[in-house]
Amino acid sequence: MSVAFRRESDDEHLEPKFELPIPPGPNLVTPRGRALIEARVVELEAALTAASDAEAAKPIARDLRYWKTRRATAIDTAPRGDGVVGFGSRVRFALAGKERAVTLVGDDEADPPAGLLSFSAPLARALMGAEAGELVAFNGREDAIEVLEVGAAG
């Protein structure tokens, strides 16, 4: 019998559902980041309880596994207080003639349009260890970024 006439279940043609990828490296969190993770876990647990059937519960359970893993691996990290850019720092800098300010936060807390930049982002890695008044290499230029001010996020 030809394969063309064989009845297959519809499930055979569905794309597999993989777990949500965990960002590499340590899971550093600010107090705000810890609170966001906790709130997400509570929200997803409630959604899972309210799920109408097993099929509706699958994506919620997958998301819940991700957030519970992030909660379990979270490392509470205080910002540096010595004027050096590090995790939790609020940095004001000039790049390509434009002044910007960002706060370096954990991967799950990052929201670049709101000025919350993941500490693992290329720009954040370039800023790490700098102090106010320093010129920092970025994007192939040795003096691409001028650090104007460094403080603790508030």
From TrEMBL:
InterPro entries associated with the record: GreA/GreB_C_sf (IPR036953), Tscrpt_elong_fac_GreA/B_C (IPR001437), Tscrpt_elong_fac_GreA/B_fam (IPR023459)
Domain of life: Bacteria
SUPFAM superfamilies hit by this protein: FKBP-like (SSF54534)
Domain Transcription elongation factor GreA/GreB C-terminal: start-end pairs: 82-150
Protein name: Transcription elongation GreA/GreB family factor
Lineage: Bacteria, Pseudomonadati, Pseudomonadota, Alphaproteobacteria, Sphingomonadales
